[in-house]
Automatic annotation (TrEMBL):
One of its GO terms (molecular function) is alpha-galactosidase activity. InterPro entries: Aldolase_TIM, Alpha-glycosidase_related, GH, Glyco_hydro_36. One of its GO terms (biological process) is carbohydrate catabolic process. Keywords: Glycosidase, Hydrolase. This is Alpha-galactosidase. It comes from Nonomuraea cypriaca. Gene3D superfamilies: Aldolase class I (3.20.20.70).
């Protein structure tokens, strides 16, 4: 909706040609810098696909509005902790391969999707604006990108009124159908992992990693991720020493032997790389300084320019060594979003592509394809699916609520990728109950543990062993079952996954829990209230087993279920099994 009369849009630029298209009870305003042809199809009830094709390469925009009636939240891939309704006049946001994803959902009461939208373009930049139109009480949307005459701008709109999670899952499936096959995700990517970051920070060395490997495997982890610090003796938390990517001779004197030792414990090994950075204090600095996008003073490093093939060859070669020479099982690739600089310099004569995101895509395509690759929020574009096996929530140390929200957000649009939680850490004096609630906060993702496992109390170790076993045993339901988080406006106080006759619910607030008519219900109590209300619709009997946070059985008995509400006691961090 470009410069609509009476609507304040201070950041808009007018596009010369405009065409209106009516479909699904809405009026779409299609604008561009070229002659436009617009088509609309309805591939499923309540689902529209709008394609706007210019007669030459040009910017194209589609705008529309829906009545803002019963709206409770606006969900966006880069929404962070904010789930309120933004104003329409805010600055447009950009999604591209390096950062964000072109999708959003206006959620209404009852968790229904009032309007879910997604763009088919997932590599090049897509601008979106969404928000409340103050002048009318509508919720406005527009989406814009440079479109080619052979493809145009493709927009999917879901007005079916279904649960918002179902509409977002369909968006992920749609992206998958548009953009072809993705990398196979091995089962180890969906199993608990150990990470060195919060446990060791940059003070990481071979002996310390090996000391954690045995306990991690014994507790149920199947991978270990060695983070920053392996490549340098610097402990300054900056990035002035990244870019050479040689193991520190002090901390990792024989990295191949070390990797073999850790893998001998039954763990896959992943190694961290800050892909875009070259630090001032590296041997690579003078070599790469002419081929950089920007300098980050606070990081003491520059961002390299992937539009140059020799830069890509150099970076890909450095990362490939970990897998091909040192025996690593995978790569943890960090900071891809840093490639998304504003106003990058014009490419020089040695560049072979005009845009940075195309350079990033070519760089990632050169990395080994037969290994594990971890990415991280906020680079959530489905354009990255062919290059990764897992994606992790952005950093939120010791914040269970943020970890829950971020992992749930990822689950909604991650498609084939295994979703990992940010690393879990806790104070040495933390209670076993609170350790358990941290694990429950990321129940529907893959937990990464990042504490000194050799220093845990017996009770803390029992909690880890019990809950990691639950993650492993029920990974199929938790990670690949039908996924239904509730109330995004309240940071998902209850989340459900179901597959076949098994339903698993995590409760993070004192809300009633619906009991299925048949099968097995598992209820993880991530709240400190212990009086759990079960809402029963179908009468019958059930066998109820209650475990405490350490897995010890507190009670097991048959229970009569009459329609209405039944209260049971489940301790904080505990687990209820109800079998009908």
């Amino acid at each position: 909706m470009s410069a609509a009369p009476g609507i304040w849009q201070p950041h808009d630029r007018g596009l010369r040609r405009t065409t209106e298209v009516a479909a699904g009870g809405l009026m779409f305003e299609c604008s561009g810098e070229a002659e436009l042809a617009c088509t609309v199809t309805e591939p499923a009830p309540g689902v529209l696909e709008l394609r706007v094709v210019p007669d030459r390469t040009a910017s194209v925009r589609v705008g529309w509005r829906v009545p803002c009636v019963g709206a409770t939240a606006f969900w966006a891939a880069d929404g962070g902790e904010h789930r309120g309704l933004p104003p329409f006049w805010r600055r447009p946001r950009t999604a591209a391969l390096e950062k964000n994803a072109p999708v959003g959902c206006l959620v209404g009461a009852g968790d229904v999707a009032l309007c879910t939208y997604a763009a088919g373009e997932v590599v090049r930049p897509v601008l979106t604006r969404t928000g409340v139109v103050e002048e009318t009480g509508d919720f406005g949307f527009w989406i814009e990108h440079e479109a080619e005459p052979d493809a145009g701008l493709l927009l999917r709109l879901d007005l079916s009124g279904r649960h918002f999670a179902r509409t977002l899952a369909d968006v992920a499936a749609w992206w998958g159908s548009l953009h072809g096959p993705h990398r196979e995700v091995p089962e180890v990517a969906r199993m608990p992992a150990y990470s060195t970051w919060y446990a060791m920070q940059q003070h990481v060395d071979a002996a310390g990693v090996e000391r954690q490997a045995g306990p991690a495997a014994e507790l149920g982890c199947e991978a270990i991720i060695v983070d920053d610090g392996w490549h340098s003796d610097d402990r300054g938390r900056g990035y002035g020493f990244v870019g050479d990517w040689e193991p520190s001779p002090t901390s990792f004197p024989d990295i191949s032997r070390h990797v073999a030792k850790v893998r001998g414990e039954g763990l896959a090994y992943l190694l961290w790389y800050a892909l875009p950075f070259v630090g001032r204090h590296t041997a690579m600095w003078e070599r790469l300084r002419p081929y950089t996008l920007a300098y980050k003073e606070h990081m003491n490093a520059a961002i390299v320019d992937p539009r140059y093939p020799h830069v890509r060859d150099l970076l890909a070669g450095r990362l490939s060594r970990a897998v091909e020479e040192w025996g690593m099982d995978g790569l943890k690739i960090d900071f891809i979003d840093q490639f998304a600089v504003e106003d990058p310099p014009a490419p020089g004569p040695g560049a072979d592509c005009a845009t940075v995101n195309e350079g990033v895509r070519r760089l990632l395509a050169q990395l080994p394809r037969d290994c594990l690759v971890e990415l991280r929020q906020p680079y959530t574009s489905p354009g990255l699916w062919p290059h990764a096996t897992m994606i992790r929530a952005s950093d939120c140390p010791l914040s269970p609520a943020h970890n829950r929200q971020r992992t749930v957000d990822l689950r909604l649009i991650a498609g084939p990728l295994a979703v990992h939680a940010d690393m879990l850490m806790w104070h040495p004096d933390e209670s076993p109950q609170r350790v358990a609630t941290q694990l429950i906060s990321v129940l529907f993702a893959v937990p990464q543990i990042s504490v000194d496992l050799t220093a845990q109390t017996p009770a803390q170790a029992e909690v880890l062993r019990f809950w990691l076993a639950f993650f492993r045993e029920h990974a199929g339901v938790l990670q690949r079952g039908e996924f239904e988080p509730s109330r995004p406006d309240l940071a998902y106080p209850q989340v459900t996954a179901r597959s076949g006759n098994t339903v698993i619910i995590a409760r993070y607030a004192p809300l009633p829990v619906a009991v299925p008519a048949a099968g097995t219900l598992w209820l993880a109590n991530g709240d400190d209230s212990t009086g759990v209300l079960l809402r029963v619709r179908e009468p019958g009997t059930a066998r109820v087993t209650v475990h405490d946070c350490r897995g010890r059985i507190l009670g097991e008995e048959p229970v009569r279920l009459d329609p209405g509400v039944v209260e049971v006691t489940v301790p904080e961090g505990g687990l209820l099994r109800l079998e009908r």
